[in-house]
C-alpha cells in the first residue's frame, strides 16, 4: 500500500538531513584502495559501521569447494580475493513486512596511470555536482546509500518491519563469487535491491560474462633470422582476429531477442590485457592475452566456454604455425549467465512508486551489457532482483565520478522503497 504523503515527505527530508554525512562516509570508502585482494581493510570498516548501528553481524570467508560445485560458480585463481563477506542483519520486533536484501560490492578495478586523472584516483574530490574517485560510482556511493537509506528511517523514529540483510561482497568485478557465496550461505529474502550506477533506471536484462586467457608459444630466434622462427605475438594477433569473427557471429544472434535486438552491439569481446616476449631483438617465444566476452541470457556459460575453446583450436589447425603448437585456453574468472527481469512483480511496482515520489518521473528500464550480481538472486533464488542506482560517468575509466544530486534522489527512492516494501514499526524507546 503506497505510503501517506506526510510520511513520504518526512522520509525524503530525513535523507536530505543526513546527506552531508552520507557523502563524507562515501569519501571515506573511496580513500580505501580496494582493488582485488586488498579489500580486507574496507570490509573491516564496513563491519564497524554496521555493528555501530546495532545490526547482528556475520563475517565469513569464501567456500571455494561449495562455489566450484555450484553451476553459477566461477573458477578460482591465484588472484582470487581472500577478503571476507560482511553481512549486517536487521531483525524487527514483529515480522509483519516483506524481507529484503540490500547488497553492494567494495572491490574496484585498477586505477591505471594516475597521471591521467584530473585528481588522484583515491582523493575523493567534490566539484559542483560530481564526486570523483575510483570506485565512487562503481559502487561505493551505492554501498553507502544502502546504509543511509536505513539511517533516514531511523532518524524519524522508524525501522523496517521485516528482516533486512545488508550485504557487502567482493569479487563482483572478476568472478561474481562473492554474491554467490551469500546465496550459498543461506541468506534468503523476498526481494533484492542493488544500487549500481544505472542512471536512475531499472535494469531489465543483462548479459552473462566469460573470462578466458589464451597463451601462444613461439619459436625464438635472433631477429636477423626471424624467418626461421615463429613470433608468438604475431600469432596471438591472428587468434584475436578469429575471436573477432566469433564476436560478430554472436552479435548476429541478437535477432528476435527481446531487450537485445535493437542494440547496435550487445555482445562485446574485450582484449583486456596482453603480455609477451622477453627481448626487443628476439622473436618472442610466448604471448598471453586476457579476454572477456559477454553472452546472452539463457546461454549456458559452460557451453559458451566450450564454443570459444573449440573455435580457437579449430582456427589453430588452419594456421601454418599454430597447427604445430596449439594455443592453450584457460578459463580464469567470470563464468556466469545473464538474466532477464520479467516485468510485473510487486517489488518493481513499489520501486516505481518510490522513484516517482523521489524524482517526479516515471521509472524507465533498460538492458545493460555488463555483469551484475543481481543474476545470483534472479537465477538461483528466483526473487525480484532490482538493480537501480545513480547517474555516473567514466566507471572503469579515468575521472570516474558520480552525481551527488542523483545519489540523493536514489537514496530517497531506496528509503521510500524500504518503507513500503518492508513496512515500518516504531523504534522501541
Automatic annotation (TrEMBL):
GO molecular function terms attached to this record: acetylornithine deacetylase activity; metal ion binding
Cofactor: Zn(2+); Co(2+)
Keywords: Cobalt, Hydrolase, Metal-binding, Zinc
Enzyme Commission (EC) number: 3.5.1.16
Family matches, as InterPro entries: ArgE/DapE, Bact_exopeptidase_dim_dom, Peptidase_M20, Peptidase_M20_dimer, Peptidase_M20A, YodQ-like
Annotated Peptidase M20 dimerisation domain residues: 205-316
Gene3D superfamilies per the UniProt record, alphabetical: 3.30.70.360, Zn peptidases (3.40.630.10)
Top-rank taxon: Bacteria
Keyword Zinc: yes
The family this protein is said to belong to: Belongs to the peptidase M20A family.
Protein name per UniProt: Acetylornithine deacetylase
Amino acid at each position: 500500500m503506497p505510503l501517506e504523503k506526510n510520511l513520504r515527505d518526512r522520509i525524503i527530508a530525513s535523507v536530505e538531513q543526513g546527506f552531508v554525512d552520507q557523502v563524507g562516509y562515501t569519501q571515506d570508502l573511496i580513500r580505501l584502495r580496494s582493488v582485488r585482494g586488498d579489500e580486507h581493510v574496507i570490509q573491516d570498516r564496513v563491519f564497524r559501521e554496521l555493528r555501530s548501528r546495532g545490526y547482528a553481524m556475520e563475517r565469513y570467508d569464501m567456500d571455494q569447494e561449495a562455489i566450484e560445485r555450484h553451476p553459477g560458480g566461477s573458477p578460482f585463481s591465484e588472484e582470487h580475493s581472500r577478503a571476507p563477506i560482511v553481512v549486517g542483519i536487521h531483525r524487527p520486533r514483529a515480522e509483519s513486512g516483506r524481507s529484503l536484501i540490500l547488497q553492494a560490492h567494495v572491490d574496484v578495478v585498477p586505477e591505471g596511470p594516475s597521471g591521467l586523472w584530473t585528481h588522484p584516483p583515491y582523493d575523493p574530490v567534490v566539484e559542483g555536482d560530481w564526486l570523483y574517485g575510483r570506485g565512487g560510482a562503481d559502487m561505493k556511493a551505492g554501498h553507502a546509500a544502502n546504509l543511509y537509506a536505513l539511517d533516514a528511517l531511523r532518524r524519524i523514529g522508524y525501522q523496517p518491519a521485516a528482516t533486512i540483510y545488508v550485504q557487502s561482497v567482493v569479487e563482483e568485478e572478476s568472478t561474481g563469487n562473492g554474491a554467490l557465496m551469500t546465496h550459498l550461505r543461506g541468506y534468503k529474502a523476498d526481494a533484492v535491491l542493488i544500487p549500481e550506477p544505472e542512471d536512475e533506471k531499472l535494469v531489465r536484462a543483462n548479459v552473462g560474462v566469460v573470462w578466458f586467457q589464451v597463451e601462444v608459444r613461439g619459436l625464438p630466434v635472433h631477429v636477423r633470422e626471424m624467418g626461421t622462427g615463429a613470433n608468438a605475438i604475431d600469432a596471438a594477433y591472428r587468434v584475436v582476429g578469429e575471436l573477432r569473427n566469433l564476436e560478430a557471429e554472436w552479435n548476429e544472434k541478437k535477432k528476435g531477442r527481446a531487450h537485445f535486438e535493437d542494440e547496435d552491439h550487445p555482445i562485446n569481446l574485450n582484449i583486456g590485457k596482453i603480455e609477451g616476449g622477453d627481448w626487443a631483438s628476439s622473436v618472442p617465444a610466448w604471448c598471453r592475452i586476457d579476454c572477456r566476452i559477454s553472452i546472452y541470457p539463457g546461454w549456458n556459460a559452460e557451453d559458451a566456454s566450450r564454443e570459444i575453446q573449440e573455435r580457437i583450436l579449430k582456427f589453430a589447425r588452419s594456421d601454418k604455425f599454430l597447427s604445430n603448437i596449439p594455443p592453450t585456453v584457460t578459463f580464469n574468472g567470470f563464468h556466469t549467465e545473464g538474466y532477464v527481469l520479467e516485468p510485473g512483480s510487486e517489488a518493481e511496482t513499489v520501486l516505481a512508486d518510490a522513484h516517482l515520489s523521489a524524482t517526479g518521473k516515471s521509472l524507465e528500464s533498460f538492458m545493460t551489457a555488463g555483469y551484475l550480481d543481481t543474476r545470483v538472486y534472479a537465477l538461483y533464488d528466483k526473487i525480484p532482483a532490482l538493480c537501480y542506482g545513480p547517474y555516473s560517468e567514466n566507471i572503469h575509466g579515468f575521472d570516474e565520478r558520480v552525481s551527488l544530486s542523483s545519489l540523493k534522489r536514489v537514496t530517497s527512492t531506496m528509503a521510500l522503497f524500504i518503507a513500503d516494501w518492508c513496512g515500518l514499526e516504531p523504534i522501541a524507546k
